[in-house]
Amino acid sequence: MQTNIFTSDEQQRIIEAIRQAEKATSGEIRVHVEPQCPTGDPIERAIEVFARLGMHQTKEQNGVLFYLAHADRKFAVVGDKGIDAKVPADFWKTTKDLLRNHFAAGEYAIGLSRGIERAGEQLKHYFPYASDDTNELADDISFD
């Protein structure tokens, strides 16, 4: 099964969306893609991947992971405890709805790019960019 479902242009679009979103926030955004969700539960799997990628090590605990198991048609968006402590309970609902609409049409790269843009807009309210911010996590897409 194909692990990387994106063309090189689509990958660059997603990475650029991450870079643009992170310009407005100290939050850190990653994307992880795999064909199947080995646990069956995309949130549980996203939490595992979050830990494996070291996303819990950000200074403000404000990492966000977009997880996609494309063959299983499952996805999740999870944030670290620093984000969860500050945002309202429905914080990610609009982002998930946006992703769901694009994913249902097979538009994974567009959906991820727009979801990342939306997350960046939301994150900047709670974690605005500061002049001493450093990019704590890689902007590339990880694959299994």
Automatic annotation (TrEMBL):
Domain TPM: 2-121
Pfam families: TPM_phosphatase
Membrane-spanning segments: none
Domain of life according to the entry: Bacteria
Annotated InterPro entries: TPM_dom (IPR007621)
UniProt-recorded name of the protein: TPM domain-containing protein
Native species: Spirosoma validum
